[in-house]
Description:
The structure is a single chain. This protein has seven helices and two strands. It is mainly α. A two-stranded antiparallel sheet has the order 1-2. Helix 6 runs antiparallel to helix 7 (134-149).
Amino acid sequence: xxxxxxxxxxxxxxxxxxxxxxxxxxxxxxxxxxxxxxxxxxxxxxxxxxxxxxxxxxxxxxxxxxxxxxxxxxxxxxxxxxxxxxxxxxxxxxxxxxxxxxxxxxxxxxxxxxxxxxxxxxxxxxxxxxxxxxxxxxxxxxxxxxxxxxxxxxxxx
Length: 157
C-alpha cells in the first residue's frame, strides 16, 4: 500500500529537484525542456539502491526552473548585491549558485511567503552541506534577496 505524498512534501521535493536541475543544466548545457523531461520521467519517485526518491510537483518544479532561467540575469544581479563585494556569483560553489537561482525564481515569481522560501532552501543547503557553514551563508544571502524582492513582507519597526 503506497501512501500519496502530501502537497507540501511534493513542493519541498520540487525545490530540491530544481536546484539539481539548474546545476545539471549549467554543467551539461542541457535545455530547460531536456532537464525537465528527464527529472519528471526518471527522478521524481525513482528508486536508487533501495531508497525511494520523493515525488515532485511537476508544476512547481517547472515554474522554479523556467523562472530561474528566464530571469537568471536579474536573479544573479540580486544575488551579487546580497554578497560581499569580494565574492561575485561566478566564484560561488555551483550547487549554491543553482540554489540561489532557484530561490530567487520562487521569491520573484510565486506567492509563497519569503520566510517559507528561505527556510526551504536553507534546508536544501543543509542536505548538500551537512557539516559546513554554507547553510548560514545561504540564510544570510537569501534574507537579503527576499528583502529586496518582497520588501512588503518585512515590515519596518
